[in-house]
Amino acid sequence: MYPSFNILVSSAGRRVALLDIFRRTLRDLGLRGQVMASDMSRRSAAFHAADRGFVVPRCSSPDFVPALLALCERQAVRLLVPTIDSELGVLAAQRARFEAAGVTVAVSSPEVVAISEDKQRTHAWLVQEGLPTVRQGSVEAVLAQPEQWRFPVIVKPRRGSSSVGVVQVGDARQLAATGRRGDDIVQAVAPGHEYTVDFLADRAGRCRCTVPRRRLEVRGGEVSKGMTVRSEVLEALAWRVCERLPGAYGTLNVQLFLDEASGTVNVIEINARFGGGFPLAWEAGAHLPRWMIEEVLGLPSTASQGAWRDRLVMLRYDSAVFVDEARDEARDEAPDEARRGAVHDAQAAGP
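Above: the chain sequence. Below: its structure as tokens.
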């Protein structure tokens, strides 16, 4: 039996499934430990579903890193897992401080985070590396020479996630009417079906596994129905993206389109964190969290590209955590800890 291995999922929000994956991973490895959650609010499902929940400052606050570091030291956390884009840059820049305290932060280098969080930099990096991507430009550039663009086009924020602010416009007049300028970018519409490819990078930036997931249905910018797909083209492309990134580490994903008829592939985004649909890859047998923990502990790696099942379908549904508000308010006397709440199937519990 190895020593206790505690994990903290930061900005945990709705990531109850990710908590459960880490719990099962610890059990499979024969490790004792807790899977904890931190968030800026107690009104978070994962906060209450975790073994322990902790309130921390907003990730944009100067108090965020000191509070999180103190929490990790106090709770003997070995692995810190960030989950939202806005905290990646902060934690990437401070990774050495956590490592000095014995905490591995599952985050890539500041360079990788900078590439992934800015779609203009993502596009420039893809072009520089000779990786396939769609045509992209500023709103102003497209309006200046609309005849050189094929409409419809996609307009999206230069920085953003979950498809917030993404619109399709049919012609230059509609584009001008949106009033979108400044930090918005325009992309050509990519042909084919959309895929997300999860991949794992070890501490040396080497790719250990890639798992394409076809996005069958999306709700609120996050996949609600998906299917794993064996594809040499997609697996190899994601492998190239991983190993060309300057300091990738942990679980990341790349979003792309594949047109089966022509064989055309276009990368549109890189996300330097766990994707919302990652549980599908894990259930298919791509146990990326296990392989990451094995490396942290210096254990022989069981990582394998052939470990996962093809054509496994995920159909996500809503669940809920129910919290006794009066009891929760009483915990203000000990604000850093919350008891575990009860998780119920929303369909069984009723509206």
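The CA atoms of residues 216 and 287 lie 22 Å apart.
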